[in-house]
Amino acid sequence: GAPRLQFNHFQLLHDVLDNMTKKITFQAPIQEIDQDYIETITALVKKYRGKKGVHMAVYNREKEVYLTMQSQSAKIDINRDLIRTLKEKRLRYKLN
Fold first, then answer.
1. How many angstroms separate the Cα of 74 from the Cα of each of 13, 68, 87?
2. What share of the chain has pLDDT > 70, as a percent?
3. pLDDT given at position 88
4. Hey, CA dihedral for 64, 96, 41, 76, is it positive or negative?
5. Which of 9, 12, 19, 54 pairs as cysteine with 74 (C-beta 3.0–4.6 A)?
6. Taking the CA of residue 73 as centre, how many other CA atoms within 13 Å lie in the half-sphere pointing to its CB?
């Protein structure tokens, strides 16, 4: 017979960010990490306190080093306002 298509789950687009993300990974080259960067990330984590994991990826392309660290204590609420703020501040991140 003809192929069939079955839908098992429907979700509103604005719910996808909250329901599908498990963590955020902030990404930065080692040269960009200074006191201002650390204070910015710390302020964001405090402002958007939540239940999702916070990771930090630091890299050095010249030496081909990539280090990922997970915060044991910091948790964040990943929402549209946070994403907008990250884009305004031009911070690199990845959602998982």
1. 27, 15, 21
2. 100
3. 97
4. negative
5. 54
6. 2
Rounded Cα–Cα distance for residues 74 and 50 (Å): 9
What is the rounded CA–CA span in Å between residue 64 and residue 83?
28
26-54 pLDDT, tens digit per residue, is 999 999 999 999 999 999 999 999 999 99
pLDDT attached to residue 87: 97
**DSSP string computed for 24-54:** EEEEEEGGG-SHHHHHHHHHHHHHTEEEEEE
Give the separation between CA 67 and CA 89, rounded to whole angstroms: 23
Q: How many residues does the chain have?
A: 96
State the DSSP H helix or E strand holding residue 52, giving kind and residue range, or none if neither: strand 49-60
Residue with tokens 């990250």: 86
| Closest to 14 measured CA to CA, from 89, 66, 80 | 80
pTM, whole model, 2 decimals? 0.84
Asked if residue 96 lies in contact with residue 65, where contact means CB atoms within 8 angstroms, the answer is: no
